[in-house]
Amino acid sequence: MWDNRCKIAVSGVGYSKVSRIADMPLAAHALIAVKEAVADSGLAMSDIDGLATYPELPATGHAEVDGISVVSVNCMMAMLKLPNLTWHIQVGTTNIGGAVQQAVNALLAGVCKYAVVWRAMHNPRGTYQNLPGAYASGATQFTAPYGFGGPGQGMAVAYTRWLEKNHQTRDKMATLAVTQRKHTQHNPHAYFYGTPLSREDYFASRMVAYPFCLFDCDIPVQGAVAIVLTTAERARDLKPTPAYIAGYGQRLHFEVAGRIGSLSSYMEGGSSSAKLTWERSGFSPKDVDVAQIYDGFSASVIYGLESYGFCKEGEALDFIQDGRIELDGELPLNTFGGSLGTGRIHGLWHIIEGALQASGRAGSRQVKDANVSFVGASAPIVTGTTFIFVREPY
Amino acid sequence: MPYASIVVELDDAPGALMAGNLLGAEYTEAKVGRRVEVTFEKLNDDITLPQFRLAV
Fold first, then answer.
1. Is there a contact between B18 and A145 (Cβ–Cβ < 8 Å)?
2. For A144-166, what is the mean pLDDT?
3. How far is CA A146 from the centre of its chain?
4. What gap in Å lies between CA A92 and CA A13, rounded to an integer?
5. How far apart are CA A226 and CA A119, in angstroms?
6. CATH number of the domain at A8-125+219-390, please?
7. How far apart, in Å, are the Cα atoms of A287 and each of A168, A207, A376, A394?
8. How far is B30 from chain A (nearest CA, A)?
């Protein structure tokens, strides 16, 4: 087990109001989320001495403008003018989960006391995956002419392979979309709060890239979320019940041609990250009370459930049936609605929910007696990270 | 109009993958493991794309 097990905890969390249209600069969203997370902890802004983020716009063909389409550490520093800042970082090889892990490391090293991590996501005007002009260049020249315009088409290939290999059809995925939307109705911060989804809605929706229909894809939104991390001792003196980090991991595998990921690479990415997390935390999948698994596209949940070890390869679509992933089921899953419910904020919202469930702060969607709370943040292949949060730091 | 975007593994270079479309067949004919052969699709004087059709 990891020497630093349960030495760092998540304290406060914060959200901006997610919107479909970018009616407010992204920097303002990030600022609202950060201020709310700091206030939720019961801290003053002057207490914050660490900053970390992953400032990426996953849309293609749009300019990256700091404060508008991304919110960098520099941008946040300029806005907050923190008097006691001692540490900051932006990560690259993993998504926002990597920024959280770096903050954990900095707190363990004692180079900061209270770190804030945010993820701000922009919804650009026009086509999200925008391939301008008639000619593709660079790596896209080998993929774009054939219709691989964005990650949806690329992921559809691996998902098709999964379905054919396991003699399954996409029909069973309706359970995931419908159940997550049901969970969303307990999350007032989510984009689809107040908008239920039926199985009929799922099957009537248009195909985006077979086997993905509209409701297999998270909706692009403008918004930001943030968390405060600190040491276990300090967290116990703050307002919220701490969510202790028992272990974490990151994917140790990478293989992407253009943006088309092979099924085996998704599985290797997920299993390499989860293995580290199980070993460090001392837990195994059967110990987990509640799980958040990244769902930018629904199939990521399937790869996650299998590669993290919650079920055998090829069985995930059967695993999610029969109420198993409901709030009172055997493995309550994406209890905040997932990205399919909140809108596309990448993995930090999964991390927030993992922490809230562990600290008993999830309100009407709280899973009863949850102690071991698992998070798979981001698609396992490309930027995947995994975490275990616990209520009891034993 | 639906079309099939496919990933093809090459016989002579196992592990090497190429993206393409399945030409000359219904998109529903694109199945994992089905053998295809290369064909060249001329788009204009400058660009010719390697493409695939079902192997005879």
1. no
2. 92
3. 29
4. 23
5. 6
6. 3.40.47.10
7. 28, 37, 15, 14
8. 10
- Please check whether residue A182 is in contact with residue A328, taking contact to mean a CB–CB distance below 8 angstroms: no
**CA-CA distance, A1 to A3, in Å (whole number)?**
6
B2 touches chain A (CB under 8 A): yes
Tell which wins on pLDDT, A238 or A254. Answer: A238
With CB atoms and an 8 Å threshold, state whether B5 touches A142.
Answer: no
First to last CA, chain B: 25
CA distances from A62 to A56, A57, A67 (A): 11, 8, 14
> What's the confidence (pLDDT) of residue A257?
47
Q: What tokens were used for A180?
A: 């997550």
- Note down the domain range covering B31: 5-54
Question: In this complex, do A260 and B19 lie within 8 Å of one another by their Cβ atoms?
Answer: yes
Domain count, chain B: 1
Q: What are all long-range contacts of B52-55, with beta carbons under 8 Å and residues at least 24 apart?
A: B52/B6, B52/B8, B52/B20, B52/B21, B52/B22, B52/B23, B53/B22, B53/B23, B53/B24, B53/B25, B54/B22, B54/B24, B54/B25, B54/B29
- For residue range A186-237, what is the model confidence (pLDDT) as tens digits? 999 999 999 999 999 999 999 999 999 999 999 999 999 999 999 999 999 9
Please state the domain extents for chain A. 8-125+219-390
Residues in chain A within 8 Å Cβ distance of B20 = 146
List all residues 6 or more positions away from B46 whose beta carbon is below 8 Å from its beta carbon: none
